[in-house]
Design goal:
- By secondary structure, the chain is of the alpha/beta class.
- The chain has one domain: TIM Barrel, CATH 3.20.20.30.
- The chain has eleven helices and eight strands.
- It has an eight-stranded parallel β-barrel with strand order 1-2-3-4-5-6-7-8, surrounded by six helices.
- Helix 1 packs across helix 2, helix 2 runs parallel beside helix 3 and helix 6 runs parallel beside helix 7.
- 43% of the residues are buried.
């Protein structure tokens, strides 16, 4: 099992120097991937711009969106942005896409937050693949949407799917799934992985789905307080009191808890685990590297 880590973009105070230092240390460490998530109405740096910085600040580690909320955006524009990022990082990019759960972010971008988001996402994925294959999809355009990505046909596409229905549909177009578990909870992850394996088999796909999972964690003195403070900010879109109900579900607030969660994912057959830090301190990279080395 590979282990990657998220850039702590959801933690306040991230700036040029800290982003640069996180990228440098992750690239030099035992990590497989540097990942990033997306929110709009939140004090985080914009995902694609930040990924552009990471693309030129790193040389080895894979870069992953986990996830980009595709229905909030124009598919041709995302195709151009992602291809440009793939060019900048020389083919080290993975794109996780999902339907999103925050209406305020859709409203901010003038997009519709309705029950057709999954249908829209699937049609957008088809457009992405057509563009990345060199097809001209814009009527009347003199040229296709360019540049072409370094990776032939575009980067690896993962579905940010958790529920059986969306996982089953993802088997038609995704290379795998990228999930998230609060606990992390063993039964929840096991069911998610097995649903993906079953969906891929039923679809008649010879290759197995790539199985990626994420969870929050905190280490050291004050870890519990750090985790609770982070969740209080991050879960604000769910309304007052949500973090007080959900925060106790998150158990990874010690070195041993983190080690146990890593072992659990490996036992369940995860291909990659992407850790989500709750501090912007670059020394966190070294702390985790010492644990997983």
């Amino acid at each position: 099992m590979e282990i990657g880590i998220n850039l702590p973009v959801m933690v306040p105070g991230l700036d040029r120097d800290s982003i640069s230092e996180w990228c440098r240390r992750v690239d030099a460490g035992p990590f497989s991937t540097l990942a990033i998530g997306e929110r709009i109405c939140f004090p985080n740096p914009e995902a694609t711009v930040t990924m552009g910085a990471a693309a030129v600040l790193t040389h080895r580690v894979r870069l992953a969106f986990g996830v980009l909320v595709l229905p909030m955006h124009s598919a041709p524009y995302i195709a151009k942005q992602v291809a440009t990022l793939d060019l900048l990082c020389e083919g080290r990019l993975t794109l996780g896409v999902g339907v999103g759960a925050r209406e305020e972010d859709f409203t901010a971008l003038g997009a519709d937050f309705d029950d057709s988001r999954l249908d829209l996402l699937e049609s957008q994925v088809a457009i992405l693949r057509r563009i990345w294959s060199g097809e001209r999809v814009v009527e009347g355009a003199l040229r296709p949407v360019e540049p072409a990505p370094v990776q032939h046909g575009g980067p690896e596409l993962l579905a940010g799917s958790l529920l059986p229905y969306s996982i089953k549909r993802a088997a038609a177009w995704a290379d795998g799934i990228t999930g998230f578990s609060f606990g992390p909870n063993r039964d929840e992850i096991a069911n998610c992985f097995e649903n993906a394996r079953t969906a891929w088999r039923e679809r008649g796909r010879e290759e197995s789905p790539r199985l990626v999972s994420n969870f929050w964690y905190a280490l050291g003195d004050g870890a519990r307080e750090q985790l609770d403070s982070y969740l209080g900010r991050y879960l604000n879109f769910m309304g007052p009191g949500a973090s007080e109900v959900l925060a106790p579900m998150v158990k990874t607030d010690s070195v041993q808890a983190l080690k146990d969660a890593i072992s659990m994912h490996e036992d369940l057959g995860a291909d990659e685990l992407l850790l989500v830090p709750t501090t912007a301190d670059p020394d966190e990279v070294n702390r985790v590297a010492d644990i997983i080395a």
